[in-house]
Write a structure and sequence with these properties.
Radius of gyration: 58 Å
Helix content: 40-55%
Oligomer: single chain
CATH architecture of one domain: 2-Layer Sandwich
Structural class: alpha+beta
Number of helices: 13
Strand order of the largest sheet: 8-7-6-11-10-9
Strand content: 15-25%
Shape: rod-shaped
CATH class of one domain: Alpha Beta
Number of strands: 18
Length: about 600
C-alpha cells in the first residue's frame, strides 16, 4: 500500500471516526435528554391525574352528600322508616335526582343493601348489594372505582357512597360518574402526550383515548397484561399507536385499584410521543452525513497536498532504494521534487550521498578484491607448482651427475629420470589447467534445457567408470515426472553434475549408493546428488565451497568452488547436508526463469 493511499485512509478514517463519534454522542445525548423529559412529563401527568382524580372524587362526594340531604330523599326515608312503607313508589326517584345532579349513576339502597331505586337500570329494583353494609361509616370514605351493572353490561364508574339517616334505619346513596373518553378529555394532558384507558374487567375490555375506542397496539398488550398479572408497573415500552412508522410513543402505566386494593379495575397509559426525538435524530444523522462527506472530500484534498510534498519524494526514494538493492548503485533521486527546507529534502540529499559513497566503496572493494584474488591465486599457484618442482630438480641433478660420472647404469637412470620428468610435467599441466579453468569460467549461455535429460546423460557417461572402479557402487535415479525444464547452459550444468558425481564416487572407497533425484517445488526444479560415503562434520561442510579448501590428498580445492560459481551464475542455490559416517547430499534449487547476471559476477571471480 502506497504512502499516498495510507495518508488518504488515515485522514478519511480520522474524519469518519470523529464524525461517527460526534453523531453517536448526539444520538445518545438526545435520547437521554428525551428520556429525562419523558420521565418528567409522565410524572407531571401522573400528578395531574392524581390531583384531578382527587378533585373529581371530592366533587362526586359533595353531590352524593347533597342528594343525601335533599328533601325528597328525606321524605322517602321518613315514609319507608314507618311501618308498612312501600318502596315501590320511589322506583323513579334515582333517575330524577341523577338528572338534577348530572350524574351517570345513582342508586338508593336500604339499610341491608337492597336497591330501592336505580337511575342507570331501574329493573335492578330489589337487588341486594351486601358490600354496602360492610363499611360502618360511609360519610368519611373517599370516592373509589368500581364496575356498575347496566343493561349494556359492566361499566367502570367513579363512585361515592353517603348515608341517609331515617327514623329507626339508615339508607344509602351510591352516586357515580362514568370513566370513559370524556373523563380522559377532562385531564387535559400536555402536548405530545396521549392518555389511554384500559378496563380489563369491562364487558368490552377495549382501549380508549380522549376521542373514543381505539384498537389495541400489538406492542402495548403484553405490557398491560404483565401489569395486570403482577399488580405492578411494567417496564416502559415503545409502541406505535397508529399506522405511522415514525410516530412512536414511550408508554408508561398507572395502576388504579378499586375499593379492594388487591384488585385492579383500570390501567391508565401515559404515552409520550417520540416524534420530536425522531426528527432531532434524523437531523443529527443528516448533519453527520454532510459533515462526513465534506470531511472526506477535505481529507482527499489534504492527502493530495501532502502527497505532493511528502509522499511523492518518499515514493521516489522507495523506488530508488529498490533499484540500489537490485544492483543499480548509480541511481539518484531528484532533489528538486522536495522542499529544500524540510526533512524530506534532507532525506533525499542523504540518500544521494549514500549512493555516492556506496559507489566509491564498491570501487575500492572491487579493486581490493581483485588484488587479493590475484595475490591468493599467485600464492596457491606458487604452492601447487613448488611441490612438483622439487622432484624435477632432484631428477635432473641425478641425471647430470650420472652423465658426468659416465655411470654404466646411465641408460637405466636416463629412462627412469625421463619417466619421472614426464609424470611431473603432466601434473604441472593439470594444475595449470585447473587454475586456468577457474580464472576463465565463461558466463552461461542460457537456453531451455531438461534437467532430467542432462542427469540421464551424465549417468550413462559415468556408468562405465563406476563399473570399473573396483568397488560395489550402486547408481540410482529418481527423476520427477513433472516439468523439469529450466533456463540454463547445458554444458556448464553437465560439468557441475559430473563433478558432483565424481566427488560422490571418491567419497565411497568401500562402495555404497549414489543417488540422483529431481523434484518440482515453488515454481522451480530441485536436484539432489547424494552418496552413502564417509560424510563430513559441520565445520568441513561449512567450508566445502571455499576456494582452495579440500579434504583430498591430491586435490586443488577448486572443484566445488567452480560448481558454486556456475550455480550462482544460473541464479540458483546450492547447499550440502552431511554427517560423519552417513554420507552427503548436495541440493541445488533452480528457478524456471533465472535472471541474467551482470558483469560484476565475472569480475568477482578474477
Amino acid at each position: 500500500m502506497s504512502l499516498r493511499t495510507r495518508l488518504l485512509l488515515s485522514f478519511g478514517g480520522i474524519v469518519a471516526i470523529t464524525v461517527a463519534l460526534v453523531t453517536y454522542a448526539g444520538f445518545v445525548g438526545a435520547g437521554r435528554v428525551f428520556e429525562r423529559l419523558d420521565d418528567q412529563r409522565t410524572a407531571a401527568v401522573a400528578q395531574q391525574f392524581e390531583r384531578e382524580y382527587k378533585l373529581q372524587g371530592e366533587a362526586l362526594a359533595l353531590r352524593a352528600s347533597a342528594i343525601s340531604r335533599s328533601q325528597s330523599l328525606r321524605n322517602m326515608a321518613l315514609v319507608l322508616s314507618a311501618p308498612g312503607g312501600d318502596p315501590a313508589g320511589y322506583v323513579n326517584l334515582a333517575s330524577l335526582l341523577a338528572t338534577e345532579q348530572q350524574l351517570d349513576y345513582l342508586e338508593i339502597l336500604s339499610q341491608d343493601g337492597t336497591i330501592i331505586s336505580s337511575a342507570q337500570w331501574p329493573a335492578r329494583f330489589g337487588v341486594n348489594l351486601p358490600w354496602v353494609a360492610d363499611v360502618p361509616d360511609w360519610n368519611s370514605q373517599p370516592a373509589f372505582l368500581q364496575y356498575e351493572e347496566t343493561p349494556e353490561g359492566k361499566e367502570l364508574a367513579f363512585v361515592s357512597v353517603r348515608e341517609v339517616s331515617g327514623t329507626g334505619q339508615n339508607f344509602f346513596v351510591v352516586a357515580g360518574r362514568r370513566i370513559d373518553s370524556n373523563f380522559l378529555k377532562s385531564l387535559a394532558p400536555p402536548d405530545g402526550t396521549r392518555l389511554l384507558l384500559w378496563q380489563p374487567s369491562s364487558s368490552t375490555a377495549e382501549l380508549e383515548d380522549a376521542e373514543g375506542t381505539i384498537s389495541m397496539p400489538a406492542e402495548l398488550k403484553p405490557m398491560l397484561e404483565e401489569s395486570l398479572q403482577e399488580r405492578k408497573k411494567g417496564r416502559p415500552r415503545l409502541v406505535h399507536l397508529d399506522d405511522s412508522a415514525s410516530d412512536v410513543y414511550m408508554a408508561h402505566v398507572i395502576l388504579r385499584p378499586g375499593r379492594d386494593s388487591n384488585k385492579l379495575l383500570a390501567i391508565l397509559v401515559v404515552a409520550s410521543s417520540r416524534k420530536e426525538l425522531h426528527e432531532l435524530q434524523s437531523r443529527i444523522r443528516n448533519i453527520g452525513l454532510l459533515v462526513g462527506v465534506g470531511g472526506i472530500l477535505l481529507s482527499i484534498l489534504a492527502s493530495r497536498w501532502s502527497a505532493a510534498r511528502i509522499s511523492r519524494p518518499i515514493e521516489q526514494l522507495s523506488s530508488a532504494a529498490q533499484d540500489v538493492a537490485a544492483g543499480n548503485w548509480e541511481r539518484k533521486v531528484d532533489a528538486t521534487s522536495a522542499n529544500n527546507k524540510d526533512d524530506v529534502s534532507q532525506l533525499v540529499a542523504s540518500f544521494n550521498q549514500m549512493t555516492d559513497e556506496l559507489l566509491r566503496q564498491r570501487d575500492r572493494a572491487l579493486q581490493a578484491e581483485r588484488v587479493a584474488a590475484w595475490r591468493e591465486l599467485a600464492r596457491r599457484l606458487a604452492h601447487e607448482l613448488k611441490n612438483p618442482m622439487f622432484p624435477l630438480q632432484i631428477t635432473i641433478e641425478n641425471l647430470m651427475k650420472a652423465h658426468q660420472q659416465k655411470s654404466p647404469e646411465f641408460e637405466e637412470i636416463f629412462a627412469e629420470s625421463t619417466s619421472t620428468l614426464l609424470a611431473e610435467l603432466t601434473n604441472l599441466k593439470k594444475i595449470v589447467g585447473r587454475f586456468s579453468d577457474f580464472s576463465k569460467m565463461p558466463m552461461p549461455q542460457l537456453q531451455t534445457v531438461n534437467v532430467n535429460q542432462i542427469l540421464e546423460d551424465v549417468a550413462k557417461l559415468l556408468a562405465p567408470q563406476v563399473a570399473s572402479a573396483g568397488k560395489p557402487i550402486k547408481m540410482e535415479t529418481d527423476l520427477t515426472s513433472g516439468d523439469a525444464k529450466i533456463s540454463a547452459d547445458p554444458e556448464l550444468l553437465r560439468r557441475v553434475f559430473e563433478n558432483l558425481v565424481l566427488n560422490a564416487i571418491d567419497a565411497m572407497p568401500d562402495g555404497g549408493i549414489l543417488r540422483m533425484a529431481t523434484t518440482t517445488a515453488d515454481g522451480g526444479v530441485v536436484v539432489e546428488i547424494s552418496d552413502t560415503g564417509a560424510g563430513m562434520d559441520a565445520e568441513e561442510a561449512s567450508r566445502i565451497f571455499t576456494p582452495y579448501y579440500t579434504t583430498k590428498q591430491h586435490g586443488t580445492g577448486l572443484g566445488l568452488a567452480i560448481v558454486q560459481s556456475v550455480i550462482s551464475d544460473h541464479d540458483a542455490r546450492i547447499s550440502v547436508a552431511s554427517r560423519p559416517g552417513e554420507g552427503s547430499t548436495f541440493r541445488m534449487e533452480f528457478q524456471r526463469r533465472p535472471t541474467m547476471q551482470t558483469s560484476d559476477a565475472a569480475i568477482g571471480r578474477v
